[in-house]
From TrEMBL:
The lineage of its organism: Bacteria, Pseudomonadati, Pseudomonadota, Gammaproteobacteria, Oceanospirillales. Gene3D superfamilies: 3.30.70.270, EAL domain (3.20.20.450). This is EAL domain-containing protein (Putative c-di-GMP-specific phosphodiesterase class I). It comes from the Bacteria. Pfam families: EAL, GGDEF. One of its GO terms (molecular function) is cyclic-guanylate-specific phosphodiesterase activity. Residues 333-586 form the EAL domain. InterPro entries: CheY-like_superfamily, Cyclic-di-GMP_PDE-like, EAL_dom, EAL_sf, GGDEF_dom, Nucleotide_cyclase, Rev_trsase/Diguanyl_cyclase.
Length: 607
């Protein structure tokens, strides 16, 4: 049997469990290698009532002898006469050896006269013989007997394969089967150029062993198996490597983020102690992770790497990656995520504002609210370092709501003090699709007594493109009430131009990447020019983002862009500084371009 065939057979059995019936799920097939002129007709008439009768006559059949059924062959019993045995000797011998370790019987039909010669020729190929003329009852019994023997062999083999591939207590796949599946996943990932993650989990049950003994340890191990199965479902090829150790894999296409999600699921085990013989046993899983192809080139080395990483996890509450680089990245991500929860709970967010100005006279038009995260150390974290993570773990909606409240609170103050006439708030798609999005906006506006016209919502092109009609309707409703809707980072998200007029937007924000080279790159000038005419045609307001130099500003004025935002005028700054800036800005002449206030952001260099 070739290694490949063996694998397929073995895997098939391992997957199908130890049910003997599943081993022969088809109607048993009898291959008749008897010449057409001999006893064939009589044989077939008799056999076809109970069995499927097949012949080697069709072209290409000889190859087919070696496939199809669970034992890797296309038949369960061969009946040969002397001529057939001589002709098919090699193929039949191959099929029988291919079926090993399962018995694949062959029966010889011969006349008494030919028996010695036949036995001499094909002794090793034959398990039983029947003398002609065929006596139907005898035929039936001999065939049934041979097939029964085959069925038993197949059942035993299936059972054996199951036993050698599964953990006895839990029924979970064991290391051998896990490695086989991991190899398969690695092969698939190699073709696709993707990664495969192997995870090993260790749950120390030493306290159970010490206090309650070996049988209690077994029990505790099984409870852990059940808990892991319940948490992980069938998605990760969970396997049991030892009493206190498990393995699982994330196949091609998975990312570090997915691995961390699995880790978090596994950590749920700590929430509920085990109940072992009336004792509450607290458990705390440790997880080691290795990545193909970065850490190892084959399944067993990959599992070894995950095991080596696991060995380093003693008393740490985070997953341990084999590679130190991935480990650093994952740790940073975990800490940021834990920190985000704290930031919300302990009010560590700050809302900063960046003016948008009239490009001709540099007067203040409105402001954009931009979030900052002030760590307890005093350092400032820019939004690009935590917004994507918040989007991934769903915290973004809470963050967006916090910003909305803070921005409206500020707007309420400005209304009485003569501040900006409008504040723009960035809204994530996840927030927008919430059922209560519309009411949240309306209630926040009315709570702070801010008119809808004083609020602008900025959505990126990508977020808008993915919205369903229901979400678009919410935006239309807000727009009708007077809320402005801006398409942020316009030009970077391949938004179809003939789609734009169907969106409920009032403003286009030309992305900074076009402004960067607007002075030197004629293509960027042309794009900006196109966006200007597009905005004119659809009666949309236009804002240029990221203006840093006088030359860029002049070029934009020439292109008739009215409003701009950028470091040239002001960086994002806290509320109090903005108040000062507004006071100074009133006194600035249009050509006095120095940034009036050096913001804390600039000093910490966090943007
Ligand atoms: P955005 O909405 O496109 O905001 C503009 C970004 O460009 C801001 O970065 C701003 O500081 C920066 N910027 C403005 N003028 C210049 C300039 O002249 N030069 C340079 N180099 N940069 C300039 P920031 O504040 O780091 O925000 C980055 C992104 O984070 C924002 O892009 C927005 O997508 C997201 N974000 C910020 N605050 C929030 C928020 O409260 N909620 C949500 N969902 N996203 C937010
Ligand atoms: Mg924005
Ligand atoms: Mg933008």
């Amino acid at each position: 049997m070739t290694q490949n065939h063996k694998d397929v057979f073995w895997r098939g059995i391992a997957e199908s469990g130890c049910d003997s019936v599943s081993a022969i799920s088809h109607r048993e097939r009898i291959l008749v290698l008897v010449g057409a002129s001999g006893n064939r007709k009589q044989l077939v008439e008799h056999l076809k009532q109970r069995y499927q009768v097949i012949f080697p006559d069709e072209p290409g059949y000889a190859e087919g002898m070696l496939r199809d059924n669970p034992a890797g062959t296309s038949f369960d019993l061969a009946i040969v006469d002397l001529a057939g045995a001589l002709r098919w000797h090699r193929r039949l011998a191959e099929a029988r050896s291919h079926a090993q370790p399962v018995f694949l019987p062959a029966m010889l039909i011969t006349s008494r006269k030919d028996l010695p010669r036949a036995m001499q020729t094909c002794d090793t190929l034959i398990d039983e013989f029947l003398l002609t003329p065929i006596e139907p009852n005898e035929l039936t019994q001999r065939v049934a007997m041979l097939l029964r023997a085959r069925r038993q062999a197949l059942t035993q083999s299936t059972r054996l394969a199951y036993l050698t591939s599964h953990d006895q207590g839990s029924g979970l796949p064991n290391k051998t089967l896990f490695l086989d599946r991991l190899s398969q996943a690695i092969q698939d990932a190699t073709v696709l150029g993707r990664k495969v993650f192997a995870l090993t989990i260790h749950i120390s049950l030493a306290s159970v062993l010490k206090s309650l003994g070996n049988r209690a340890l077994e029990e505790a191990g099984l409870v852990c198996c059940e808990r892991l199965k319940a948490i992980l479902g069938d998605n990760y090829s969970l396997a049991r490597l030892a009493t206190e150790e498990w393995a699982l894999m994330l196949r091609a296409g998975a990312s570090t983020k997915d691995v961390l999600e699995v880790f978090r699921s596994v950590q749920q085990l700590t929430a509920t102690p085990l109940d072992i013989r009336g004792e509450r046993v607290h458990i705390s899983p440790n997880v080691g992770i290795a990545v193909y192809p970065d850490d190892a080139a084959n399944a067993s080395s990959l599992l070894d790497c995950a095991g080596a990483a696991l060995a380093r996890t003693e008393r740490v509450q985070h997953p341990m990656f084999y590679s130190s680089t991935v480990q650093r990245q994952a740790l940073a991500q975990i800490r940021t995520e834990a920190g985000l929860h704290e930031a919300l709970a302990f009010d560590q967010f700050e809302l900063w504002f960046q003016p948008k100005v009239n490009l001709k006279n540099r007067s203040l038009s409105s402001v954009e609210a931009l979030i900052r995260w002030r760590l307890p150390s005093g350092d400032l974290v820019p939004p690009n370092n935590f917004i994507p993570l918040a989007e991934h773990n769903g915290l973004i909606t809470c963050i967006d709501r916090w910003v909305l409240n803070k921005a409206c609170e500020s707007m309420q103050l400005w209304q009485t003090q003569g501040g900006p006439a409008q504040v723009a708030v960035n809204i994530s798609a996840q927030h927008l699709v919430q059922d209560d999005f519309l009411t949240t906006i309306e209630q926040t506006l009315s709570h702070y007594d801010v008119p809808p016209t004083a609020l602008e919502l900025e959505l990126t092109e990508t977020a808008l493109a993915d919205l369903g009609q229901e979400s678009l309707d919410k935006l239309w409703a807000l727009r009708k009430k007077g809320v402005s809707i801006a398409l942020d980072d316009f030009g970077t998200g391949y938004c179809s131009l003939n789609y734009i007029h169907k969106l409920p937007i009032t403003t286009l924000k030309i992305d900074k990447c076009f402004i960067d080279n607007i002075v030197t790159d004629s293509a960027d000038t042309a794009v900006t020019q196109t966006i200007v005419s597009l905005a004119k045609n659809f009666r949309l307001k236009l804002v240029a983002e990221g203006i840093e130099t006088e030359e860029q500003c002049e070029r934009l004025v020439r292109l008739q862009v009215e409003t701009g935002q950028g470091y040239l005028f002001a960086r994002p700054m806290p509320f109090v500084e903005l108040q000062q800036w507004i006071g100074i800005a009133d006194k600035l002449s249009p050509r006095d371009t120095k940034t009036p206030v050096i913001s804390r952001e600039r000093r910490t260099g966090c943007t």
